[in-house]
TrEMBL record:
The keyword Disulfide bond does not apply. InterPro entries: Acyl_CoA_acyltransferase, GNAT_dom. Residues 1-39 are annotated as: Disordered. Keywords: Transferase. Residues 1-16 have a biased composition (Gly residues). It comes from the Bacteria. This is RimJ/RimL family protein N-acetyltransferase.
Amino acid sequence: MTGGGVARGGEAGGAGRWPSLPPVIPVGTGTGPPTATGTDGGWELRLLTGEDPGELDAVLATVPEADRAATFHFFTVVPLPLDEFVTADPGRRTYGLFRGDEALACTSVYAADPDARTVMAGFTWTAPAWRGRGVNRAMKSALFSTLADAGVREVWFRADVENTASCRALERCGAERVRVDDAPRVYPDRVSRSVFYRRVL
């Protein structure tokens, strides 16, 4: 592990890469996250490979162009174009959260360290209409369970110290604040600091 416990670079792509994760992860009990509304037939995380343009379009639609600046304000790397993002790093796996054909959110797992049994999770966002409705918590709960079954012991997160909403969301999901990074967090138009969180599985 590097940087005081943060997982480092992931394995190369391929069927044998660690951790072994399924292409579809069930979320909730079939009626959606506990605090979300609706009587749909089930929620699931689907691995985005770039081979299904319809799924990519659905995930992209979670962030209308007018909302992108605000949604990605605290991203040091904007995950667009989405088709390039999901294939750019063979060590990163990106999942879309779906309710039927409707995408609600997106998240990624990357920087797997099989020796330390750690991964990082990030590049996470929720469609504006679904924020504050338990979507992020339900998504992370399903992801944590799947990662634990795959042998992961800790999930690490990196957030901007000024992104209080993200920090609160991580804490609600059981992650503990570990440290503020000494290195600057550099954006195209500003500089901030990163704070690291850890969720023990």
